[in-house]
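User: Show me a protein chain along with its predicted structure.
Assistant: Here is one chain, sequence first, then structure tokens.
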Amino acid sequence: MGLDPRKHLGKDIGFLKSYLHKLKELYGINVCGEGGEYETLTLDCPLFLNARIVLDGFKIVMHSSEAVAPVGILHPLAFHLENKAESCSSSGIDKTSEICKEKVGLVFEVQGDCLHRPEATCQSAAEVTKLDEVAERRLHISRTKNHNTFSICCWLQDSCESSAGLQEDLEAVLRKIELKLVGYGFGWENVVYIHLYIADMNKFSIVNETYVRYITQEKCPFGVPSRSTIELPLLQVGLGSAYIEVLVANDQSKRVLHVQSISCWAPSCIGPYSQATLYKEILHMAGQLGLDPPTMTICGGGATAELEQALENSEAVATCFNCSISTSALLFVVYCSTYAPSSERHRIQDKQDTFLKQMRLFQSDKASIVKVPDPIFLYVLVPDLPKRAHVEIKPILYVPEDADVTTGTVQELSCVRMPSYWGFQHAHWHDSCFQKCVVHGKIFAVILCITSEDVLKICSESLGGDEGNRDYQNSFQEEQMERVSRFCIYLLDKLYMQDNFSWDDTQNLRFYFPTSLGVPVEALSLMLTNAFNELAEMGQRVKIGEEPIFNLVPVLGAGRSATSMDNIITCELFAQKA
């Protein structure tokens, strides 16, 4: 109110100072624009160590021409950098600038462990009492063993009747993870990525309000973690309303991209998270929706159009790190919501394959782009996504520090004797159960899919002659699931040995299971725990602690293609050597 895009966009803030104060007297606006009255384009500040931005040309794009409150966007057409006369070490540069040794585009690079770690969130006596009550409701933790980058997962395992509600459950889980981080000598600033699973996407705003009480810019001075938020059928399997997995780094040498303002090149963050975080040559990208960047609305055209827009957004983010999703991606997780018609799902996969193929051809003549083996894919069916989107994609990319490094798959070690646990012997059909991507002998990603047909083969020795008449998706017995759980651990261990990796290299290990499986989550967790314990006793290749090294993620379905998300169980594993 009182601001006209045609008159005031592109003006220096100092030029408008007196006018803004006048508007404050007339209408009570916030002079600094904190009420959403306007956004600023920063052309120079102390963080810009070497040069300032000079805007050579722009145009005003009208978003809304309402008489009372018109909305417009300043779209830069041409600009250049102008070197600063003063050096970076001048007295005008604050301590924050001294910490930031290097800037690349919109990317913060944090060097060393030089920042003071904020204290854990203060709690009142009532909050502590509430946390004690939560502990009685069975608050669970899992943790992988990688020394450089490990995951911590926390969830409430109780019936839906005893769940206190999404906000209370989320506070309990966040507080528990925060205490765990402090116990390890870390804080939220060490967190690289957060998977936030909730029971009701309609409460997304409440989730963000609760989330920012714990994860703030003050605690993460150079960028909050990247994040993916997904609705899962948590209550249907007897879990609480909030379930969180965090990826933790043992130092702060990360680079973070945060898109805060409306732009035409990439969507701004719709929550308190960063678009991407690069750590130890792995680029962890936030879940990408089919958002049109200038308007921040889901693009029309259904699931296929949303997927294409999400891929374009992902490519824009990847470009900031001098890479491409078509040549640097290791793994794509594609979440499909139930709002996407089943008839569109085959077109989703076709669109993704076509987009990546065309992008790969476009990138083929760029010598600076590092090319890795073909990525692997996992499709997951979930109840809902933010903004009621049909599709969300979550890419993981390899961005080597040395651009000249050669990449490729590592040859399997034929001299290594393959394990033979629980009576399982190597068979050629095992190869059809997994997708694998191994890069430079130090990065290892696997998607393991067990279908009902695979279950027939796994359990053929113990099921008798009527196995062909069983409906595994609806009447699965725990004794067969125990056999399948052991097979999954056996096959993962075999793949680790083939490529000279160990369980200590694991960063995250997720087992997705459909709610229709009919096996209680406690029983499934016990089966996998027992399998790992037995593996440790047989080969001592895995170290067992008080906390499991895996997460159980309930979904509506999962699979290696968008048209067959009907696996009995699906495993996603990511490992990296130090």
